[in-house]
């Protein structure tokens, strides 16, 4: 774990590509993209199966490790309308049945606009950004907000390490003045290299561990 203070709140970065606010009992997950694999298969692209179950099992693990009362998805919970496929929704339903007392909120993102809200029986409250929590503005799009420190997703930030053939791209947390961007949580998502500016902090995820990437 990697603790920082953000918006006056204790903000704990987790190696599972999520963040935890211990004072609020709140777990933050960005860009789960549930149903992305089935969306690609519907287009005839052969991609691995089981990514939805993998993502939900990882959420289960996080709920066991931390005292979570409120789970907030920072946008792009569902990848597209194809994510409403029966098998995908059935897996989500079984997950919800395992956590009936958990308060779950979705801050809508751009993919949620196309996919539509999850079915009501999943008991997921859906809101538009920003969702205010203490000194934080919980959003999908990483844009500064007056009077709050933003926590967002959308970008799928990646840190570039090494050079030439030894160069590797790792998912990372990107902290810039006023805006913290979480890595994409979903197991079937890409990475966008961060355009690092002076003062930025990058905390990369590798092999289940976190490490801060030094500035050049």
In a nutshell, what does this entry contain?
With 216 residues, the protein is an alpha/beta fold. The protein is 19% helix and 33% strand.
Question: How does this structure look, described?
Answer:
β1 and β2 (about 10-15) form a beta hairpin. Helix content is about 20%, strand content about 35%. It starts with a strand and ends with a strand. It has about 220 residues and is of the alpha/beta class. It has helices at about 35-40, 50-65, 85-100, 110-115; strands at about 1-5, 10-15, 20, 25-30, 70-75, 105, 125, 130-135, 135-140, 150, 155-160, 170-175, 180, 190-195, 200-205, 210-215. The chain is globular, with a radius of gyration of 17 Å. α2 runs parallel beside α3 (about 85-100). The model is unreliable at about 45 (pLDDT under 50). The longest helix has 15 residues, at about 50-65. The strands form 2 sheets. Strands 8, 9, 10, 11, 12, 13, 14, 15 and 16 form a 9-stranded mixed sheet that branches. Strands 1-2-3-4-5-6-7 form a 7-stranded mixed sheet, with no helix packed on it.
Set down the secondary structure blueprint.
Blueprint lengths: L1 E5 L2 E6 L3 E4 L4 E4 L6 H7 L8 H15 L4 E4 L12 H13 L4 E5 L2 H6 L9 E3 L3 E3 L2 E3 L10 E4 L4 E5 L6 E9 L2 E3 L10 E2 L7 E6 L2 E5 L3
Parallel strand pairs: 4-5, 5-6, 6-7, 9-10, 10-13, 11-14
Antiparallel strand pairs: 1-2, 2-3, 3-4, 8-9, 11-12, 12-13, 12-15, 15-16
Helix pairs in contact: 2-3
């Amino acid at each position: 774990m990697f603790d920082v203070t953000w918006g006056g709140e204790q903000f704990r970065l987790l190696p599972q590509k999520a963040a935890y606010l211990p004072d609020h009992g709140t777990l933050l997950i960005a860009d789960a993209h549930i149903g992305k694999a089935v969306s690609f298969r519907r287009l005839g692209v052969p991609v691995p199966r089981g990514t939805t179950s993998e993502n939900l099992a990882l959420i289960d693990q996080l709920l066991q490790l931390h005292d979570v009362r409120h789970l907030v998805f920072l946008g792009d919970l569902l990848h597209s309308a194809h994510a409403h496929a029966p098998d995908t929704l059935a897996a989500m339903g079984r997950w919800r049945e395992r956590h009936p007392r958990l308060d779950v909120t979705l801050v809508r993102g751009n993919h949620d606009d196309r996919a539509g809200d999850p079915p009501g029986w999943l008991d997921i409250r859906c809101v538009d950004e920003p969702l205010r929590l203490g000194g934080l503005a919980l959003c999908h799009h990483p844009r500064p907000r007056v009077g709050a420190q933003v926590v967002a997703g959308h970008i799928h930030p990646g840190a570039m390490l090494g050079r030439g053939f030894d160069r590797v791209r790792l998912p990372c947390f990107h902290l810039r003045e006023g805006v913290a961007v979480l890595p994409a949580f979903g197991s079937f998502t890409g990475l966008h290299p961060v355009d690092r500016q002076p003062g930025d902090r990058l905390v990369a995820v590798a092999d289940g561990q976190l490490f801060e990437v030094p500035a050049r």
